[in-house]
Amino acid sequence: MTEDTSPTPSGPRVGLFATCLVDLMRPSVGFATVKLLTDAGCQVEVPQAQTCCGQPAYNSGDSTDARDIAKNVIDVFEGFDYVVAPSGSCAGMISHHYPRLFDGDAGWKARAEALAAKTHELVSFLADVLKAEIAPPDLAATATYHDSCSGLRELGIKTQPRDLLAKVGGLKLVEGAIPETCCGFGGLFCVKYPDISEKMVDAKTDDILKTEADLLLAGDLGCLMNMAGRLKRRGSDVQVRHVAEVLAGMTDSPAIGDGDTGDGGG
């Protein structure tokens, strides 16, 4: 084993909020996120005590359990300079909804607000906070991008992933007619309203197929799994990947829905 002589990052100390889906279904997204942040000069740590962000409980009206989960997340992550998640959904939960959970509890509300202020979705953090000059490897492909609801509507993420993807040599980005339309996943929405969800994801896959892209990208794994599953069931060979995997040059693993993560949703 040779000695590692690479420089130690001296930038901000970043806690990676890996997310449940990344941890359980697509760890390569987590590794890609670490690579991107480390290459940008961050000191990245992945706390082992982290859990779910509490969004399923929160969206179900279970504020008691959501608060208990939020307290753990706050305890685990409040010592970092920043908290970064490769998911607009989880980043939105922490940055927008945690403070509301503690109305009436001044102490915990202050801690929740402090964590919310330094929590970011990955591509927004790279583009808006670090203003990182990334140099992703080339990828000869035609891609289309799906704007996830939480990332777009809660966090204002629209141009950031496209600007970063423009740095990928050989990659052609083709916009669909409805890139901002929900894919029908919506966390528990697809479980509560499967018929509506199915019609929504069919509309999305129709639009994706019309672009004739061979690669579908997005920043939320739930959306990607849902669309990958529907595309696969319709016999499509469109590859589905998280944007972090392309930006980090980690596209050697099977695409989402091609065997390593199950068949996806939809």
Provide an overview of this structure.
- With 266 residues, the chain is an alpha/beta fold.
- It folds into two domains: 115 residues, Rossmann fold (3-Layer(aba) Sandwich), CATH 3.40.50; 113 residues, Rossmann fold (3-Layer(aba) Sandwich), CATH 3.40.50.11810.
- Helices cover 47% and strands 11% of the residues.
- Helix 4 packs across helix 6.
- The longest helix has 18 residues.
- The chain is globular.
Percentage of helical residues?
Answer: 40-55%
Number of domains: 2
Task: Write down the secondary-structure element order.
Answer: EHHEHHEHHEHEHHEHHEHEH
N-end to C-end Cα span: 45 Å
Considering the chains and any ligands shown, give keywords for the structure.
266 residues; alpha/beta; Rossmann fold; four-stranded parallel beta sheet; 13 helices; 8 strands; 47% helix; globular; disordered N terminus
How is this structure best summarized?
The chain is of the alpha/beta class. The protein is 47% helix and 11% strand. The protein has helices at residues 20-25, 27-39, 55-59, 63-77, 88-101, 106-117, 122-129, 149-154, 159-165, 189-192, 194-211, 221-233, 243-247, and strands spanning 13-16, 43-45, 82-85, 119-121, 141-145, 171-173, 215-218, 239-242.
